[in-house]
Specification:
Number of helices: 21
Mean pLDDT: 77
Largest sheet: 4 strands, mixed
Number of strands: 11
Helix content: 40-55%
Radius of gyration: 31 Å
Shape: extended
Low-confidence stretches: 99-124, 188-198
Amino acid sequence: MIQPDNDTVLIQQSLQGDQQAFSALVDRHGSLFLQTAYRLTGNWDDARDMVQEALLYAHASLGSLRDPQRFLPWVRAIIYRTYQGHRKKQTRRIELLNFYISSEGNDPSISTHTILPDQYLYQKELASLLHHSLQSLTERNRRIVELFYLEDWPIRKISDFLKLSTDTIKNRLRNARIQMRKEILGMQTLNPTPRLKPQRIARFKISGSFSGDSSNPFGLNDTLLYQRILAACRKTPLTPFELAKRIDADEAYVIDALLSLLEMEIIAEAAPNHYVANFFFSTVSDDQTLLDRCQPYVKKVTQELQKNLATIKKAIDDCSFNQWGFGWNEIHWIVLYEWLPQPPIPGQPKPLSAKEINRFIGPLRPDGGRWYLSGHDLTSPFSERIGSRAFAEYDGSGRHYKVNWPGSGRLMEEREFAIAVKLANGPKTETEILANLSNEMGREVLAECMNAGFITRIDGRYHLRFPFVSPEDEEKIADVLRPVSAALIEARDEWQGEAPNVAKELGFDWLIENQPNSLIAGIEGLWGLNQQLQMEGLIHPPPDDDNPCWAMWAKVRKA
């Protein structure tokens, strides 16, 4: 029988009930599966058992494989999970035995939390002491302990096997635990390695939408092991063994972390058993190179801005929100940080095509969201760059925007937005706000808005703490920003033509070849533009007070 060269054909045949097709897949990749398992277990017999277990699961779950071309890494991931399952089970047995020895507890339900890397030496020492204390038992009592704790046999099965009553088995287990505890107390005292406070080495920026599922990138900024793995393979594909050696961590922990990173599509398998960061992750040196090379393009934009600045300021002064205290000083950061690169579109924005969504918002991810990721060394000034824009839409009546700056508040709920709309045209009394609303409900929402910092009360009247931008305001702003925005787009396009060459010089060859959109998302924008605007005194840093609304604005729809 001639076998197709493509795994996809064999997988389709297998899903249609062709058992020989799945056997052909196993024959094709079986040696690699066995090598993967052996690398984990260090024992050929265990490796064969693990591969057999993993293949049984793979065969039963074949219909869940989204991309047939990824059959090989998919099965290898199953092998990794199978290994982790056996490893966690063994860890639990050691914990369970230690629990009984140290506390004589009656409840065997112990937390199965994963041991952190900085506790690994403690776990190894514990296992060693338990092993030595087992040798102090009589042969029969040792066999009972091994069957119960290490082989996971129930007491009834042990009783039948050894031809002893269940009470005798229980008594011998208790006596064995007492003797083992005495042996351990006479040995070296266990001193767990002190748990070090994690020190972050990078900060990650995420743009796009998220489902809230656990398979999303939010945890990267809190998980040191993930950060260290990504820093090690940010340019060059490495094996789990090479990664473990480079970051001085146990290979089993690295493999476990790789599974999560692969699932989130944050790491890619560049070649069999070789992993590389699936996004642009730069160091201080990389950032400085990009900053220097981008400087001529930045100067083009700032020169055009200086030329049009007086016109822009006048347009802001003529907007409706200026009469309510939101002038150039209060809103310039929104104009230059947000509207200059993305001029406001009056009315309903034009829907993006599927290609534009993938390019600007990000590809569809396993968590159901669309997002791009970029990372920076924590000491880089770009690790503190402005966060992504977020907004909430309220039944087509308007939107509330915020920029994810440190210290910025939350987005409004729909009923809070209804209160804010009433204040869009100026301060009002409580009676005016509650008109056409249930007094009890209205007062409750008003209190929520006050507590969240969205509004404030001055001389008996309520004021918004962020501007509402009308469609007419948007038209004025978009009109005066057009020359500067055009210069920015032209400079950005020129920079995007050069940036991949700079990235290649920096060694991001795999990313250029395999994830060009992710690379562009990481390096697009004019590096150093915000810093240059600050240096020229065009924008000011965030305020020192605790106003949660300084990074917010809202807009209403055209009728």
